[in-house]
């Protein structure tokens, strides 16, 4: 049985971007990672709204670091995926994969190597 | 990332401040500085690459596209918080009043009635006016103090008066527990 409150599609993308970025996962970097890797042009507001939702659910945590000159002295907030976040992401990806399997034209995914 | 070049100027600073005034109220306080800092950082890069006008356009575009998801997020937050407070209020107010009635407060004289009414109203007001758990704790401490005074000054036995305090505390606890699921609203160190 799949949990009903699994992260949505954009939330999954943000979680994956945060995981990919590791210690460098802050708002702007996440936005750029989404654009570069997923071709998704998200606004900073959309990224922060999603990160806020994920933090509320306990799927990510964040810590603030002091400002820098290139940011006009404003602080950076770095995010990392929590253990429940990783588990929720794994479940969501498995659920998608379970649905995908056996669908004509998607099994295996076009372009995927065996 | 290198420091801003000569193309980051006062007009870009003014634009950033303007956007901050517009978007600020929509962003959870803990994220406000970070979001504006990200905007400044990326705009500085655009300014160095494409000039100040392009950076200004980029910032405005980001602000316009950021507003809808931030408004939606704010609305969701407010609905959740209002629901939590109403839940706490539903427990604190009616249950407190019922217990006060059961404690024969009406037979205890006007002073005791006022003290008990204040003891029930204090946590309920805290729930309506704030979402701060520290205020909840202070309100409950005040309520317990008022009930203790009521207990001391009345010659009439008020056997269930302690339950009034328990019920109001339970209402506050329920609301505070639900509020704790919204960590970004509390600015973090």
What is the rounded Rg of chain B?
A: 25 Å
**Unreliable parts of chain B:** 183-189
Helix/sheet category of chain A:
mainly alpha
- Describe the main β-sheet of chain B briefly: none
> Which percent range describes the beta-strand content of chain A?
5-15%
Q: Write the element-wise H/E pattern of chain B from the N-terminal end onward.
A: HHHHHH
Question: What's the total count of β strands of chain B?
Answer: 0
List keywords for this structure.
heterodimer, A: about 110 residues, mainly alpha, two-stranded antiparallel sheet, 2 strands, elongated, B: about 190 residues, 6 helices, about 80% helix, about 0% strand, disordered C terminus
Can you characterise this structure?
The complex is a heterodimer of chains A (114) and B (189). Chain A has helices at 9-21, 27-38, 44-56, 83-100; strands at residues 60-65, 76-81. With 114 residues, chain A is mainly alpha-helical. In chain A, strands 1-2 form a two-stranded antiparallel sheet. The two termini of chain A are 28 Å apart. In chain B, helix 1 (10-23) packs antiparallel against helix 2 and helix 4 runs parallel beside helix 6. Chain B contains six helices and no strands. In chain B, 78% of the residues lie in helices and 0% in strands. Chain B is mainly α and 189 residues long. The longest helix of chain B has 51 residues, at 52-102. Chain A binds chain B through residues 26-28, 31, 43-46, 48-53, 55-56, 58, 62-64, 67-72, 74-77, and chain B through 1-4, 13, 16, 23, 26-28, 30-31, 33-42, 44, 62, 65-70, 72-73, 76, 181-184, 188-189.
């Amino acid at each position: 049985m799949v949990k009903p409150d699994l992260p949505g599609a954009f939330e999954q993308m943000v979680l994956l971007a945060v995981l990919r970025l590791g210690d460098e996962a802050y708002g702007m970097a996440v936005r750029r990672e989404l654009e570069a890797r997923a071709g998704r042009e998200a606004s900073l507001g959309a990224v922060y709204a999603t990160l806020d939702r994920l933090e509320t659910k306990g799927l990510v945590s964040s810590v603030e670091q002091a400002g820098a000159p290139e940011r006009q002295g404003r602080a950076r907030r770095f995010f990392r995926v929590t253990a429940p976040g990783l588990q929720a992401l794994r479940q969501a990806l498995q659920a998608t994969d379970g649905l995908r399997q056996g669908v004509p034209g998607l099994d295996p995914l076009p372009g995927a190597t065996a | 990332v290198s420091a801003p070049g000569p193309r980051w100027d006062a007009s870009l600073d003014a634009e950033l401040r303007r956007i901050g005034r517009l978007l600020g109220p929509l962003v959870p306080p803990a994220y406000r500085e970070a979001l504006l800092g990200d905007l400044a950082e990326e705009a500085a890069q655009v300014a160095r690459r494409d000039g100040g006008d392009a950076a200004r356009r980029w910032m405005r575009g980001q602000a316009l596209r950021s507003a809808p998801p931030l408004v939606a997020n704010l609305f969701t937050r407010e609905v959740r918080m209002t629901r939590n407070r109403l839940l706490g209020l539903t427990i604190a107010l009616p249950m407190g009043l019922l217990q006060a009635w059961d404690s024969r407060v009406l037979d205890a004289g006007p002073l005791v009635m006022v003290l008990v009414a204040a003891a029930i109203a204090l946590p309920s007001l805290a729930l309506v006016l704030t979402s701060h758990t520290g205020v909840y704790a202070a309100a409950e401490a005040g309520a317990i103090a008022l009930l203790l005074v009521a207990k001391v000054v009345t010659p009439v036995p008020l056997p269930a008066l302690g339950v009034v305090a328990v019920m109001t505390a339970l209402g506050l606890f329920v609301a505070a527990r639900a509020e704790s699921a919204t960590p970004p609203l509390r600015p973090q160190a």
